Amino acid sequence: MKRQLVALVICALASLPASAKDLGSIGHLFQIAEPDLLTFIAQRLKSMQDSGEMARIQREAEARVKAHAVRPFPVAGLTPAIKDRAFLYDPTFTVRETVRDMRGNVIARAGDKVNPLDKVPYSETLYFIDGDTPSQMAWIKTQVKGLQNFKVILVRGNIHDCSVALDEPVYFDQYGTLTTKFGFEHTPVRITRADRALRVEEVALR
Q1: 96 CB-near residues (< 8 Å, 6+ apart)
Q2: For residues 93 and 116, what is the distance between their CA atoms, to the nearest angstrom?
Q3: For residue 45, what are the contacts with CB-CB under 8 A and spacing of at least 6?
Q4: Burial category of 130 from C-beta neighbours within 10 Å (exposed 0-12, middle 13-18, buried 19 and up)
Q5: What's the CA angle centered on 67, arms 132 and 141, to 5 degrees?
Q6: Which of 31, 88, 132, 172 could form a disulfide bond with 197, CB atoms 3.0-4.6 angstroms apart?
Q7: How buried is residue 163: exposed, middle or buried, by Cβ count under 10 Å (0-12/13-18/19+)?
Q8: Of all helices (H) and strands (E), which one includes residue 20?
Q9: Pairing relationship of beta strands 99-100 and 106-108 according to DSSP bridges
């Protein structure tokens, strides 16, 4: 009986005509007027170009890039050595994934410990110096005189000026990557091979 009553109510509601009334509006209506973003940007850029501001910004950006290219940010935390210190750096690392050659032969398995000095002949001397310190520049000139296999790496200073002064290619330890890896805290530093390790020497200049 209840089901029949519910069915009758649904039918009655379904038979009513559907209608909607305009109830009007309350308050004032305003048209939404947002400027087109791309149009705004284009107008702003044109204004900057006409006024010369765009050219000025571009010149300043180019100057910053050039300045950073020849004088990167110095490696933080390093100070001049006040006493000689030497220690060994072991380059051994653990292989994360099995390495194979082009034919599928296993070169190193995951978990193996590998010392690159066992695989690759290495006899290069690395020098790390502060190029802004005259005493370190004088020291490196005496160190590399007559030397063939070496690299000079700046932790601070102007790459171009130091290269001209030494008449040698000069590199920079960007972001202190090598400084962190080798673990030295003072400069200048000389790094040479010591059998299956690398000898790191902080040199106190007197």
Answers
A1: 110
A2: 8
A3: 54
A4: buried
A5: 30
A6: 88
A7: middle
A8: none
A9: antiparallel
